[in-house]
Amino acid sequence: MTATQAPTMTSTSKPAQSLRLCAESLTLNYGGRNIVENLDFEVPSGQVTAIIGPNGCGKSTLLRGFSRLLKPAGGRVHLDSKDVSKYGSRDFARRVGLLPQHPIAPDGITVADLVSRGRYPYQGMFSKASREDDAAVAWALEATHTEQLADVPVAELSGGQRQRVWIAMSLAQETDVLLLDEPTTYLDLAHQVDLLDLVVRLNRSRGTTMLLVLHELNLAARCADHLVAMKDGQIKMSGAPSEVLTRDNLAEVFGLDAVVSPDASGSPIVVPSPRKEML
Amino acid sequence: MAMVIALAIGLVGVFAIRVLLGTYTVAIPDFFSILAGHSIPGAAGAKFIVLQDKLPHAVLGTLAGLAFGCSGAIFQLLLRNPLASPDIIGINTSASLGAVVAVSMFGAAGTGMATGGLIGAVACVAVIFGLSAQRESMVGNRFILIGLGISVLAVALTNYLLSRVNIYKAADAAIWLTGSLGSASWQRISVLGLVLVVVLPLIALFSRNLHALEVGDEMASGLGVPVASTRWLYVVLAVLLVAFAVAMTGPITFVAFVSGPIARKCVGGKHSLTASALIGAIIVVLADFVAANLIPGGRLPVGVVTGIVGAPILLWLVAAAQKERS
Description:
The structure holds two protein chains of two kinds.
Chain A: E1 21-30, E2 33-43, E3 48-52, H1 59-66, E4 74-79, E5 82-83, H2 89-93, E6 96-99, H3 111-116, H4 131-143, H5 159-172, E7 177-181, H6 189-206, E8 209-213, H7 217-223, E9 226-231, E10 234-239, H8 241-244, H9 247-254, E11 258-262, E12 268-272
Parallel strand pairs in A: 3-8, 3-9, 6-7, 7-8
Antiparallel strand pairs in A: 1-2, 1-4, 4-5, 9-10, 11-12
Helix pairs in contact in A: 4-5
Chain B: H1 2-20, H2 28-35, H3 44-79, H4 91-106, H5 111-132, H6 141-164, H7 167-178, H8 186-205, H9 207-212, H10 217-222, H11 227-249, H12 255-267, H13 272-293, H14 302-325
Helix pairs in contact in B: 1-3, 1-13, 3-8, 3-11, 3-12, 3-13, 4-5, 4-6, 4-7, 4-11, 5-6, 5-11, 8-11, 12-13, 13-14
């Protein structure tokens, strides 16, 4: 199920540039309430970063701020020292991609058709798909192991397949930064691992900066180079997984009583303390 | 693409049936010689019947069908719900109300009544948007439920007004209210034709953006699609189509509603707007052929036929959607 080594690929993609995406005293307001307040953060370029935190802490909202879905109520988001609102929408979409939590699979379209829609920012109003478009779609299908599904209607896919196809669509966009909002929701454990390994592999092979929102702490520690723990719209701590996932930090951020021990590779494993009445 | 061409040929076919066949048949050579301006020896009435009855019916039916089919598909796509067609969310019934207000309060007839219908349709959309736009997104059931509420209100007010006007005016209005090509005239045809000539190319021009919205607003804006402006543009274009078509023919029910889902079944996601427009036109022309010839010596308004055929399709679609979900 899990692909542990990078497969040999026949198609290639243009390598990602290293872009600085950062938030400066960013305040994001949603439904009249400040969800993220006065936050400073620079997304580590060329790395896999996972944002963790309790429900309602502002993780997804922060991602929406980075992807321009939410206009800042205060502060700003910069991409290469230029305010993201100054970019044209296609221009921005060629640099920063977003896979939202609930994308909608349109009726009656095939996997290849869906993935090719990731080329939108490269196409003019009348232009047909160019050779680069076809190559990027072929690469995206191959990189996500969905090339056999190319002609299958999206509606017939399983949850795991569908999520891979959405990732393929985002890959076809060939962005330098990819923002993923809880990409493993609704997947079983094996498919979660599989998907996150895919994210890491794409980061290593192409250099895409990955920023994910994740709920599952152990999986976050397993895939991310860098963890960001949020609470109440603030970043509480940020760093290597082993620095962030400590017993004290878990108690502070999640109010969770848990034991943290290293796994075989040294990345931390969080195990909640046994139920009290069992003792 | 092959399917779209097949539908276009189908439209030409039903157009020919409407013009040439029926209780009064016309031979093809005679038809063309009438078009060229000649009278047919021995059939003095033929020229009149073709130019003032059959041909205007077929042309207006085609134009209105294209408009209904296309606008229905746009609404369904924008709101991501097959129930979101203009005839369900109250645009048709509001147009009727507008027309009846024009008849009963301003003594209008003909063009005045049509103008009232136009104003009613536009007002309905304005009210729905006013009430649902407090939320950021215009997607979802909220929009449709508000539309349904407006629809019920419009029907009630229409019936009230009809019961207050004199019987001749009420009868006149009632024919328009069921949707009829009976008042087809070359003047009406040119008005609706002009609207289509302006609006349809615009719809085609930005259709890549419209289809890009199908993956959801967030995903679409992540792809660099100007989501809000695309939505507004298409709402305005779709309302123009349906409002003018309703004004010219009355609300021919269920055409806008069924064309989109049938088109998707035929062609899938691509070219679904074109296919939906063609299917709308085929339905209206065919229904009008049935309406004109079903009762010997009499005529049904075309809306009666589309209603009788369309309502079961509505029930079937709802049942099918339920089955898919479970």
